[in-house]
Amino acid sequence: SSNDGSGEAEIYGILQSFPANLIGNWNVGGITFAADSATEFKQREGVFAVGSTVKVHFGTDGNGVHRAREIETRFANDDNGRDDDGNGSFEGAEGHAYGAIDAIPGNQIGLWRIGGIEYNVSNSTVLAENDGTFAVGKQVKVEYYLDGNGGRIARKIETTSETGGVTAPTRFKLFGFVSQMPANGFVGTWVVDNIIFSADGNSQFKENNGLFGLGAYVAVEYTVQNGTNQVHEIETHVPPGAGPNLAAGRIDDKGGQLVAAAQLLATWTIAGTSYTVTPATDLNDFTGALNVGDTAVVNSYLDGNGNRVATQIRGITLDEIRYVPIVQN
Fold first, then answer.
1. pLDDT one-digit tens code per residue, 285-323
2. Are residues 75 and 241 in contact, defined by beta-carbon separation less than 8 angstroms?
3. Could you give phi then psi for residue 267, rounded to 5 degrees?
4. I need a surface site. Which of 86, 106, 116, 291 has the fewest CB within 10 A?
5. For domain 8-75, which CATH number applies: 2.130.10.10, 2.40.50.320, 3.90.420.10, 2.60.40.1910?
């Protein structure tokens, strides 16, 4: 959790600046953290670099100073519209959303509007009519990444009965990365994956999995009112691929997906280990399928109840099969 009551908290955010010898003030996600000789620095996932995503575990002292206990790299951001490390994932620059179709171009190629938000569909977009045909008003899930200009490129659009866990049928849900937020407090303009959202005094804010900041991965539940994306709730989640645990293995079970459509949480079993799959989980089947019997890479963390929560499950590439240690049951 972001705050367990002992004054300890965490943030996943974009590294804005840091001292040359690592000791001193760091700016992560727009928030200042003080690092000293007792701070642990972990660069297993790459060296510290401005623009990359890091995790800071910190405590706040009596003077309100955020003292970093641990700072670690999580991933370099693929924010240039390219999948630089070739793993099928656009780290820090991708998302997925659940909403109703507002508009479809004539031949299905071009700009779609889903839940008030525009997505670019090309010949390489996977269009899957899993739960009925595409039509205005039909519920869909869209998976996308940002190109170098901030445009949302749809990788996949599928008809579905899933809503991403909205609390009312008139609302939509989007999971993405914060690039702008109000300077003071949380009321005002938020920008998530280049989409403008407006939060007011009725909006709810939940920092369950890290503090809000630039580069935080959030779920936005919103309505469209007179062309404005009005925030009902924003909640932090551990970014896809940013959890501490990585495993690869065979998908044994997906918890009866037909039953799970009505539920928010599904349990997938991979290499004999159970993982909780939430609407925030990035299910990436672009490099390999995610059917029972397929091999997948799963990134996860342990929640406060000891459950393994998957941040990302992605089909494994042939290259990875050669060097990723496959977990055997």
1. 988 889 999 999 999 999 989 999 999 999 986 666 666
2. yes
3. -115, 120
4. 106
5. 2.40.50.320
d(CA 311, CA 279): 10
| pLDDT (tens digit per residue) in 66-77 | 999 999 999 877
The domain segmentation of the chain, as residue ranges, is: 8-75, 94-159, 172-237, 245-321
Residue of 71, 25, 16, 79 whose CA lies nearest to 46? 71
Match 């977990």 to its residue by tokens.
327
Structure token pair of residue 193: 């994956």
Question: Measured between alpha carbons, how far is 104 from 116 in angstroms, rounded to an integer?
Answer: 12
CATH class of the domain comprising 94-159: mainly beta
Cα–Cα distance between 227 and 125 in angstroms, integer? 26
Closest by CA position to 289, among listed 128, 51, 69? 128
**113: exposed, middle or buried (Cβ count in 10 Å: 0-12, 13-18, 19+):** middle
Q: Find out whether 186 and 229 touch, Cβ atoms under 8 Å.
A: no
CATH of domain 245-321: 2.40.50.140
